[in-house]
Amino acid sequence: MTATLNPPKKPTSAFWKRFKKSTPGKIGSVIVLFWIILALLAPVLKPYDPTVDRNFRDRQEPPSFSALWNSELKADLTDENGKVNYFKHIFGTDNLGRDVAVRVLHGSNLSLQIGFAATLVALLIGSFLGVISGYFGKGTDQVIGWFTDVMLAFPSILLAIAVAAIRPPNISPVAATYMTMIAVSVAQIPIYVRLARSVVISLKEREFIQAANALGAHNRQIIFKHVIPNSLTPLIVQGSLSIATATLEAAALGFLGLGVTPPYPEWGTMIADSRDFYVDAPWTMIFPGLAILTWVLGFNLLGDGLRDVLDPRSSH
User: Fold this and answer.
1) pLDDT tens for residues 219-261?
2) Which residues fall within 8 angstroms of residue 155, CB to CB, at 6 or more apart?
3) Distance CA 91, CA 283 (A)
4) Which residues are in the ABC transmembrane type-1 domain (predicted)?
5) What angle (nearest 5°) sits at the alpha carbon of residue 303, between those of residues 208 and 296?
6) All residues at 6 or more sequence positions from 51 whose CB lies less than 8 Å from its CB, including other chains
7) C-alpha dihedral over 274, 42, 306, 250, to 10 degrees?
8) What pLDDT is attached to residue 117?
9) Where are the domains of the chain?
């Protein structure tokens, strides 16, 4: 009787098998995928010009679905054939007559760009500095560690505010968007420096790194072929969590008037513009706030799921 050996599982199949067991990961991936699809299809589904698409006759109109119990609104939404358009402004309109649902939809595109761009920049710069600091140590580690400690002495949102406040007063909306990305990424860099440094310090004591050194491998080869590939797991998990943090910080900057400037439909800016109308038109704040809530929740759950799958110390 001959024994049969099962072929080893591919890393991707093993990953998906473990990911399917993570309830937070599955819920988070559905939420994130939903918002990503909306963000990518927003220009196609609802072409939008924030400087033109407004109707003052429909300003502060309640959500159209409220016509189910609002007879006055139902009369306004009834056409010549007697049909009621319950989807005309499903999230209502703001003080300028702009459709809140359309602005929330296009705000997801902007949040997607800011979240991913800021996180990618912070991950690349912070991880590079952390790898250099942890691998070479001594003076290099002291200098990078000193700058990192100074940046970590401030809460990330205060650091982002300090960077964003440098911008000139009459900045264009496009420049303000890029400045928001820079401010958020700068605030996130120290996290990746500390994380990459701690991972590299532990890797330096592993046998395969010591063997590469004994065989005369150059530091550049060791870093790019051995150190960085084996440091990706915690950085990927942190990156998924940082996208949520970056979006939240960008919304906070927009709310304070230091982020994306009008007329761009950024969620934090939309909430800030609605502060004077929250009594008469609370929907102008509720729906952008719910968008931020679900976006951040989705990436946090996805990050928890990835940590459960990619962390070899977790039990499954």
Assistant:
1) 888 888 888 888 888 888 888 889 989 999 999 999 888 888 8
2) none
3) 7
4) 108-303
5) 150
6) 263
7) -30
8) 93
9) 35-47+59-310
pLDDT band with cut points at 50, 70 and 90 for residue 5: very low
For the chain, give percent helix, strand, coil, nearest 5: 70, 0, 30
| pLDDT surpassing 70 at residue 9 | no
- Do 114 and 177 meet the contact criterion of CB atoms below 8 Å apart? yes
Identify the CATH number of the domain defined by range 35-47+59-310: 1.10.3720.10
What's the mean per-residue pLDDT of the chain? Answer: 84
The residue whose two tokens read 């989705």 is 298
Would you call 276 helix, strand, or coil by DSSP?
helix
Place of tokens 């459709």: 99
pTM of the model: 0.83
Q: How far apart are CA 311 and CA 309, in angstroms?
A: 6
101 half-sphere exposure, CB direction, 13 A CA radius: 13
